[in-house]
Amino acid sequence: MNRTVYSKDGKELRTIELSDAVFGLPVNEDVIWYAINNELANKRLGTACTKDRGEVHGSNAKPYKQKGTGRARRGDKKSPLLVGGGTVFGPKPRDYSYRIPKKAKRLAMKSILSLKAQNNSLKIVEDFSIESGKTRDLAALLGNFGPGERTVVILKDDDPRVKRAGANIPWLSFLSYKRLRAHDLFYGRRVLVLETAAKNLNEFYSPEGCKAGEAV
């Protein structure tokens, strides 16, 4: 498919050929759901921790004798039935992360890119950098493509000046063409892809670009 390349001022410059195998696939909603949930699970911190009756502070002595008081039997003051006692089957620190197949993850990224292309929320922009590293310069550039809304910029490489300029913009996030995140990409209302990054995506997510050990 052919897509228009826009200048930094938001004007049409030329067209670019995008691979149908990357930007023109049928949208697979199931694999997108799996990829997003996988990312959220991997970010989850399983730090919740409770103490059972063997870990809470307290005496191991029997609070009163077993028989003759008319009260319920008590082994010690750390019983889960008493205030200040241990917790039964409470949460412990754990790792929630897991991995999904590489092919499924790649398919999810291509499905999201195809979805954004079909919805016309994906625009190809000529390569740019913010030499000053200032937020106002980047905000002025983004303003040429519409009002401030949740925006994802796919970079051709790690540009520290652009990232520095966008650090103070809460609705903006940056992704590398070879390190996409399904959650950010799917929920971005506007996706700006640098021209070189678009060419790299054509190659990286093509069937020939799927090599063992390659990052997704």
Calculate the terminal CA-CA distance, rounded to whole Å. 23 Å
Give the overall form: elongated
Query: What profile does the largest beta sheet have?
Result: 6 strands, mixed
Determine the CATH topology of the largest domain. Answer: Ribosomal Protein L4, Chain: A
CATH-wise, what's the superfamily of the largest domain?
Ribosomal protein L4/L1
CATH architecture label of the largest domain: 3-Layer(aba) Sandwich
How would you spell out the order of helices and strands? EEHHHEHEHEHEH
Give the structural class.
alpha/beta
Strand order of the largest sheet: 2-1-3-6-4-5
Count of separate structural domains: 2
Could you explain the architecture of this structure?
The protein is α/β, with parallel strands linked by helices. The protein folds into 2 domains: 138 residues, Ribosomal protein L4/L1 (Ribosomal Protein L4, Chain: A); 51 residues, no CATH class. Helix content is 31%, strand content 14%. The protein is built from 7 helices and 6 strands. The chain has a 6-stranded mixed sheet. Strand 1 and strand 2 form a beta hairpin. Helix 2 crosses helix 3. The mean pLDDT is 90.
